[in-house]
Structures are given as structure tokens and as C-alpha cells.
């Protein structure tokens, strides 16, 4: 049986046009009146499959996730040249940090640079500090270091941005930045990312529980977006395993290594 989150509904796939997200972060809903499943970020490319009553049924390019977004959150796509490589940044009216800010952007948001000065990159949305951007094709080397950019970010079910993120959103952001394909939900990640391993924990291993995932930092430490701290935080692995099981959420269900 196909996963409706990854397989477009043939009854709704009446068109196919390219679009991109035009707001800092947009909720991706299971249905127009339903819950948020995930989020998509400014500049991320989507395929619009159906539109009605102010809603667009879309499929996200980054992971194939399907769902509904508000039509007003979409725009005509532009070819991205860079992406935000810091936890968050602002686009300013001019190449001046004292000028009014126009837009806030989260880590990973693709943008189109049309001109550059010494300190700023000009985009259609405004001027962004050059040091906050990386070329769109640059791949980072260490998922755990990328995850650390989100330390302190509030926990948000289905969240994918610096303003709120959940466990699978954190892992996806970290792995995609390093060029490692990664779906959006933890149980999908448990089935498809890397390969199962036994033995010692190595940096960037993934640990899974029922409905939860964490990223290994070193042999004793992991980083995860968690409801216990209601934020992205470091936690001792042994302590976390004991705490999660004592809370009734069961033992570790998988230990996987991306890239294996």
C-alpha cells in the first residue's frame, strides 16, 4: 500500500505546475481542515497538483511530501543560487544593517542572489548578509554540527524551521544540508536512511524510538528536538534511553548509520 504522504492522490492530480514558497515558513496540512504534517520554507520548490478554494495540493521537491498549503503562500519559482547557512537571517531594505528588515529566513531557505556588495547579497526579497549565505550546491560535512545550529529552538510538532522544529525535522535539515537524502517523518527515516548497525555509537548515527529520532554527537551524547525539554538540546544517550523507556515510550527500536 502506497504512503499518501509520498504518493500524490490521483483524484487530485489534475495539473502540474512549478511553484515555490513565498513566506518564511508555510504549514503543510494533511487536508485543508486537517492537522499540520510538516512545514516548507521560503524558496523551497513545490509542484502544484490541484488548486481549489484558496488551497493548493502540492508535492515538495526536497522529500516528495504531499499536502495542502494556502495558495497565497506560493509564488512563481526563481532559480536559487544560495541558501541560508546560519540558524536564521534577515533580508533588509538596503545593504545596511540599520535599514528596515523585510523578511526573516530560517536555515536552509533557498534564495536568488542578483548582485553583491562587500557585505551584503541582494535578492528580490531584500539585502541579506553575505556571511549568512552559502552556494546552493555546497554540501556540509557534519550533520551533528548542522543540528547544533538549532540548539534552543522551541519544539514544534511538524516544525521544520528555526522558529520551531521537531525531531524528524531536525534530522532532515541536518542530513539534507550534507547531501544525504532524508524523508520528513521519523518512521520513514527509520526505514530508509542509511543501514542498521550494532555496537558503539559513532558521530552522526541515528537512534530511533517509536515516533522519535535523535542524532549521535559522540559516544555518550546525542542531540534531538524533544518534548522533554520542549527544545533542541543535548542529552546523555544512556540517560535518554532510560528516561524515554521509563516514560512509557519504549526502548530504542533502531540504530542506523547514514551513508552506510
Automatic annotation (TrEMBL):
Organism the protein comes from: Sulfitobacter profundi
Keywords per UniProt: Hydrolase, Protease, Thiol protease
Domain spans labelled NlpC/P60: 136-259
Name of the protein in question: C40 family peptidase
Family under the similarity heading: Belongs to the peptidase C40 family.
Amino acid at each position: 500500500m502506497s504512503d499518501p504522504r509520498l504518493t500524490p492522490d490521483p483524484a487530485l492530480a489534475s495539473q502540474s505546475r512549478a511553484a515555490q514558497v513565498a513566506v518564511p515558513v508555510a504549514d503543510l496540512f494533511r487536508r485543508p481542515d486537517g492537522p499540520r504534517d510538516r512545514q516548507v520554507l521560503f524558496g523551497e520548490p513545490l509542484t502544484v497538483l490541484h488548486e481549489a478554494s484558496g488551497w493548493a495540493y502540492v508535492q515538495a521537491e526536497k522529500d516528495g511530501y504531499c499536502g495542502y498549503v494556502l495558495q497565497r503562500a506560493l509564488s512563481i519559482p526563481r532559480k536559487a543560487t544560495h541558501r541560508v547557512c546560519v540558524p536564521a537571517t534577515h533580508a533588509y531594505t538596503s545593504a545596511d544593517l540599520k535599514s528596515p528588515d523585510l523578511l526573516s529566513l530560517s536555515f536552509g531557505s533557498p534564495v536568488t542572489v542578483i548582485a553583491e556588495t562587500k557585505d551584503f547579497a541582494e535578492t528580490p526579497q531584500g539585502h541579506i548578509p553575505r556571511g549568512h549565505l552559502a552556494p546552493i550546491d555546497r554540501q556540509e560535512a557534519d550533520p551533528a554540527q548542522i543540528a547544533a545550529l538549532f540548539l534552543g529552538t522551541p519544539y514544534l510538532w511538524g516544525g521544520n524551521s528555526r522558529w520551531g522544529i521537531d525531531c524528524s525535522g531536525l534530522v532532515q535539515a541536518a542530513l539534507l544540508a550534507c547531501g544525504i537524502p532524508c524523508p520528513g517523518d521519523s518512521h520513514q527515516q527509520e526505514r530508509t536512511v542509511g543501514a542498521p548497525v550494532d555496537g558503539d555509537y559513532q558521530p552522526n548515527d541515528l537512534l530511533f524510538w517509536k515516533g522519535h529520532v535523535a542524532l549521535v554527537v559522540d559516544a555518550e551524547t546525542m542531540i534531538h528536538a524533544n518534548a522533554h525539554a520542549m527544545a533542541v538540546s543535548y542529552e546523555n544517550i544512556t540517560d535518554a534511553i532510560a528516561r524515554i523507556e521509563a516514560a512509557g515510550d519504549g526502548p530504542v527500536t533502531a540504530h542506523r548509520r547514514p551513508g552506510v
